[in-house]
Write a structure and sequence with these properties.
- By secondary structure, the protein is mainly beta.
- The chain has two domains: 33 residues, no CATH class; 81 residues, Immunoglobulin-like (Sandwich).
- It is 12% helix and 33% strand.
- It has a four-stranded antiparallel sheet with strand order 1-2-7-6, with no helix packed on it. Strands 3-4-5 form a three-stranded antiparallel sheet, with no helix packed on it.
- The longest helix is centred in the first third of the chain and has 12 residues.
């Protein structure tokens, strides 16, 4: 496994320690990432995204989507089945799961929908006006001094 030295990032920037910590967490994890349920992440516009999870067999009541501290957490728990069933083959996975997605600053969840066994979560990046680029006027030092009001 490769190791990356992120100390140059700390020397040349201010406020990116969270990004470096996240990269360190992701790069240091073993290859045993959960694969259930399968999902897609799609960029639908310049500042819009969609996460789609295959959640066949789960109803809306059994699914939970929440945002906590810049993390999107999708979980599901199947309601207990009533009665005794004798399975000859059970290949449909209805096991409980929890899937976490780290959200960048200013990425907000717009909504979620459940259709045909797919859970779609719509996200949008909303950059505040204060963080958008703005032009700064440059004052000239050679302007004549203002005369005092008499």
């Amino acid at each position: 496994m490769r190791t990356f030295d992120l100390s140059p990032l700390y020397r040349a920037s201010v406020g990116f320690d969270q990004v470096a910590d996240m990269m360190d967490r992701v790069l240091s994890k073993d290859g045993a990432q959960p694969t259930y349920p399968p999902y897609n992440i799609e960029k639908t516009d310049d500042d819009a995204y969609r996460i789609s999870l295959a959640v066949a067999g789960f109803s809306e009541d059994e699914l939970n989507v929440e945002v906590r501290e810049n993390a999107l957490i999708v979980s599901a728990r199947k309601a207990p089945e009533d009665g005794d069933k004798t399975w000859l083959h059970r290949g449909i996975a209805n096991r409980a799961f929890e899937r976490r997605f780290q959200l960048a600053d200013h990425v907000r969840v717009q909504g979620a929908s459940h259709e045909n066994g797919m859970l779609h979560i719509e996200l949008a990046r909303e950059v505040p006006e204060a963080l958008k680029p703005r032009r700064i006027e440059i004052a000239s030092l050679h302007q004549p001094a203002l005369q005092a009001a008499e």
